[in-house]
Structures are given as structure tokens and as C-alpha cells.
Design goal:
The complex is a heterodimer of chains A (258) and B (244). Helices cover 77% and strands 0% of the residues of chain A. Chain A contains 11 helices and no strands. Chain B is globular and about 45 Å long. In chain B, helix 3 packs parallel to helix 5. The chains are: A mainly alpha (258), B alpha/beta (244). At the A-B interface, helix 7 of A face helix 2 and helix 3 of B. The complex binds adenosine-5'-triphosphate (ATP) and magnesium ion. Magnesium ion binds next to helix 1 of chain B.
């Protein structure tokens, strides 16, 4: 890690890169200048704050603070995922349970097989990746479900009127939502290394880890992302479909109620 | 026991803040055969949706056999009362997927004798069973949707313009079998129609809706005699006459 050339000075110079996009936005009249400036400032502030926080938690090196940090990350992730399914009641709680279940299972396996240790410097970066991916997948799952329940309302109602319960009537939609939410993760499995050098591997290589070692990490990361995403979308799908029905087993039109 | 299968008391149905059904009061005897008529948008489909418990009254009460419909387990109720949608819609891939579904939800083995019997009865070729649903005509889809709803011999059948895309031969075939179910099995059947001649053939009683209100409830022949000349009561579009 000591061979890194990056320092504060070169980082500031690299901020020139942001100006390129601002100039581009202005020139093309994209009206993104404000968003880019605000986004950049936020990103720097957030990352700096997180840097200090992580520094502190790493020093404390206590399982309780490590776990609290993870819960905090899951909480934030579920708020963002729930925004994709605005109108799904209790979307935040569902996302929290789904992302939590995915992350907890995967981390537990990794710790049990000895791939990582339950210490902040290992668990927190790994959970960050896992939670981030689960967040995107759960958000996709929510959005798919809303779309499909709107598009296929008649099919659901016909099945209800043929005596099906809510789950049977929604089965096709639940499965398709889970499948579509997992698709990007599955697709990225196929292109890994060919098209993209994933972020973690890139980071390790830049920080001086030999590529063969970095690849080992990346393979582990790939496994854990796949499992987390499948668990999280599965839990999200099977919890969220109920929100499209009322207690009289009727389909409620949540897209219109917004 | 109660001789009325349905009793509606001051029923309102509102959707998105708009009253679609207004103050409906109606007593319907068990085993009645009903035609539901009225201009387009008068609330015929909405009334059927309400009776099928896909929607609930926003005000007033609906009783089924003397029991408040809101207190009944919807799944049990829907097994007795079947609703055939105005727009036919088949799910899954094949006709078979649709016809075994009512058995599957009850965890029963499909009764293919009965499936074939009804296909034959409603003029659907038996080898259609494994046909792709997308390769069926509108009228074929409509008859399969109808079979799907009567496989379990419900107590009540709610038919929403189910003969709309059928030719006169098939339309009469369907009507005749529905009348047979009504007369022989005592099934209470509601038939939404825009067709005066069909209402005449159907007989029974007529429910006439206008702008979400129940305007008339009387024997069909009397209704046709009094109001049959006025084509707007059947919601006829121009140039679309009865066939006599
Ligand atoms: N979900 C809904 N939200 C708002 N209005 C609705 C909704 N569903 C139906 N309506 C309105 O309720 C009224 C009654 O509709 P309904 O479908 O019951 O009419 P109908 O008598 O069956 O007409 P048609 O003969 O054309 O089938 C119509 O004005 C319709 O626009
Ligand atoms: Mg209608």
C-alpha cells in the first residue's frame, strides 16, 4: 500500500476533471451544472466524513460499533431503495429487512468459512459493497413490481376472481420482478474481467496488490454479491407483493393513489 | 334462510373521489336471470365488479344470502360467485393453463371430462387445449374465459358482455347454455348486454342503470315493451340496431 502515488495535492489537481463536465454541460445546455457542483461537494464532504468515522471505528475495533455502522449503512440503503417504489407502503421496512437479510447471510458465511474476519477494517468495506448492490437490486425489484402490477392488473384480478389468494395471483409478477432485479448482477458475472475491471480489483491493483491476489478477492466479492442480491430481491419480492392488496383481498391501485 | 340471493341497501361505489354507483337498492331472488342494461359508462361493469368483491361499496351494504358480504372470506365467496370480464383475457401460454387454473387454486386434480364437456358445449374444438393463447380469435378467447369461470359450477355467474365478439350462432349457443344452467341448476346469472334482441331472448328481469343510478328493475319483456323503442337505453351507437 505504500507505493501509492496519490496524495492530497494530486487529488486537488484531479478536480479539474469535474470542471470538464461542468463546461460540457454548459456548452450543451444540459442544465446539469448545479447538480454536478452540488453532487461533487456532497460526495467530497460525505466521503471525508465517512473517512473520519471509519478511522475512528477502526481504532475502536469493537464488534458493537462495527455492527452499528453496518446497521446505519443498511438503513440508508433501504431509504434509497424505497424511493424506487414510492407508493409501496412500508417500502423502507421491507427494504431494510431484505437488504439486511442478504447482507447478514453473506457476511455470516464469509466469516464462518474464514474468508474475512469480523473486524471493522474487513467487515465494513465488504458490507459496503454488498449493501450497495443489494440496494440497487431491491430498488429495481420494487420498481418492476409497481410497473407489472399496473400492466397486469387484469390478470391479477381474474385470478383473484377465480378463487386464487394474493400470492397465487401475483406469482408471475413476483418471479418476473425478482428475475429482472437480478439480471444486471447475473449479466455482470459474464462480462467480469472482459469488459469491466470491477472497482474493488481496480482499487487493490492501484494500491499495489499483485493482480493474481486481487483476482482472488474479486472472485470472493463476485460470489458474495450474487448471493446477497438473490437473497435481498427474493425477500423484497415476497414481502412487497402483499402491499398491492388490501385486507379484503382486492388489488389496490397504488400507482393512482400517489 | 333467505330467498334473496342479493340485497343491496343504499350502495355507493366511488373511485378516485367520483361516485360511480349511487344509492343502489335492489333485492334479487335466488335463481333469477338478469339482464343488466344501460348506456355506456352507466356503471354496469362497476356493479358486477362490486358483486364479485373486486371492489367494495364505499357506502351502504351488500348482503349475499342474508350475510353481509364484507364479513365473508373473499376466497370462499369468489368460489361461489364467478365474474367473467368484459375484455376477455387469457393468462399463461396455452388454453390448458387457463382451464386447469381453477382446479389448481383449489388443490384439485383437473377434471378433463368436465373440461372437454364444456368445450364441446360452447363450440370450442377439443384440440384447442394445447393451443397457444395468442393464436385464438377474440370470440374463442371469450368462450374459453367463460368455460374457465363455469368449470366449478358457481352459484352466481356475472357475465359482462361475454357475447360481444361472438357471431349470432355462437352467441345464441352461449345464451342457450346459460339459460340451461339457470333453469336446471338454479344458477343466478347476470348478463350485461347492449343488445335489445339478446335481452328479449334472455327474458328474466332487467336492471336498468343510468349515470350510476338504478332507474328500473322489472321483467325484461315489460322493460322491452316500454323502453325498447328508445335505442339509447341499450347504449347503442349509431347504425347498430337490434337484429330484427
Ligand atoms: N378506476 C376508475 N376510476 C375512475 N373512474 C372509473 C374507473 N372505472 C370506471 N370508471 C368510470 O365509471 C363509470 C362507469 O364505468 P363502467 O365500466 O361501470 O361502465 P359500463 O356501464 O360498464 O360501460 P360500458 O357499456 O362502456 O362497458 C364510467 O364513467 C367510467 O369512466
Ligand atoms: Mg362495461
Amino acid at each position: 500500500m505504500n507505493e501509492m502515488t496519490l496524495n492530497i495535492y494530486s487529488l486537488m489537481m484531479a478536480s479539474v476533471l469535474v470542471f470538464i463536465s461542468i463546461i460540457f454541460s454548459y456548452w450543451q445546455n444540459l442544465k446539469l451544472e448545479k447538480d454536478i457542483i452540488v453532487g461533487t461537494v456532497r460526495a467530497v464532504l460525505q466521503l471525508t466524513a465517512v473517512g473520519f468515522l471509519l478511522n475512528y471505528i477502526f481504532k475502536l475495533d469493537h464488534w458493537l460499533y462495527t455492527t452499528l455502522m453496518m446497521l446505519f449503512m443498511i438503513y440508508n440503503a433501504s431509504n434509497i431503495a424505497a424511493k424506487r417504489g414510492r407508493g409501496i407502503q412500508k417500502g423502507k421496512s421491507i427494504a431494510f429487512v431484505a437488504i439486511g437479510a442478504g447482507a447478514a447471510t453473506t457476511l455470516a458465511i464469509l466469516v464462518l468459512v474464514g474468508a474475512i474476519k469480523y473486524i471493522p477494517s474487513e467487515v465494513i468495506p465488504v458490507s459496503g459493497m454488498v449493501i450497495g448492490n443489494a440496494m440497487v437490486a431491491v430498488g429495481l425489484c420494487f420498481r418492476q413490481m409497481q410497473q407489472l402490477f399496473a400492466d397486469r392488473a387484469q390478470e391479477v384480478e381474474i385470478k383473484l376472481s377465480l378463487g386464487a389468494n394474493e400470492k397465487v395471483a401475483s406469482m408471475g409478477i413476483i418471479r418476473q420482478s425478482i428475475r429482472l432485479a437480478m439480471q444486471p448482477t447475473v449479466d455482470s458475472l459474464k462480462t467480469l474481467g472482459i469488459v469491466s475491471l470491477p472497482g474493488m480489483m481496480t482499487g487493490l491493483i492501484l494500491a499495489g496488490t499483485p493482480p493474481l491476489k486481487a483476482i482472488q478477492y474479486q472472485i470472493m466479492v463476485t460470489f458474495m454479491l450474487t448471493s446477497t442480491v438473490s437473497i435481498a430481491t427474493f425477500v423484497a419480492g415476497y414481502l412487497a407483493y402483499r402491499r398491492f392488496f388490501n385486507d379484503k383481498r382486492q388489488l389496490v391501485n397504488i400507482t393512482r393513489e400517489e | 334462510m333467505n330467498s334473496f340471493i342479493y340485497q343491496l341497501e343504499g350502495v355507493y361505489l366511488s373511485k378516485n373521489g367520483k361516485d360511480i354507483l349511487k344509492d343502489i337498492n335492489l333485492d334479487i331472488p335466488k335463481g333469477d336471470r338478469l339482464s343488466v342494461v344501460g348506456p355506456s359508462g352507466s356503471g354496469k361493469s362497476s356493479l358486477l365488479r362490486l358483486l364479485s368483491t373486486l371492489d367494495s361499496a364505499s357506502k351502504g351494504r351488500v348482503f349475499y344470502g342474508g350475510k353481509d358480504i364484507d364479513t365473508m372470506e373473499p376466497i370462499d365467496y369468489r368460489r361461489k360467485v364467478r365474474y367473467v370480464f368484459q375484455k376477455p383475457y387469457l393468462f399463461g401460454n396455452t388454453v390448458r393453463d387457463n382451464l386447469v387454473f381453477p382446479y389448481n387454486v383449489m388443490k384439485m386434480n383437473p377434471d378433463f371430462d368436465r373440461i372437454y364437456y364444456l368445450m364441446d358445449k360452447l363450440n370450442v374444438p377439443l384440440d384447442f387445449l394445447d393451443k397457444d393463447k395468442d393464436n385464438l380469435s377474440g370470440g374463442e378467447q371469450q368462450r374459453i374465459a367463460l368455460i374457465r369461470s363455469i368449470l366449478m359450477e358457481p352459484e352466481v355467474l356475472l357475465l359482462d358482455e361475454v357475447t360481444a365478439s361472438l357471431d349470432i350462432v355462437n352467441s345464441k349457443l352461449v345464451e342457450e347454455y346459460m339459460i340451461e344452467l339457470n333453469e336446471e341448476k338454479g344458477m343466478t346469472i347476470f348478463l350485461v348486454t347492449h343488445d335489445l334482441a339478446q335481452a328479449r331472448r334472455w327474458g328474466g328481469n332487467t336492471i336498468y342503470l343510468e349515470d350510476g343510478r338504478l332507474k328500473h328493475y322489472m321483467p325484461t319483456d315489460e322493460f322491452c315493451r316500454q323502453y325498447g323503442k328508445d335505442l339509447t337505453v341499450f347504449g347503442k351507437r349509431k347504425g347498430e340496431d337490434g337484429d330484427e
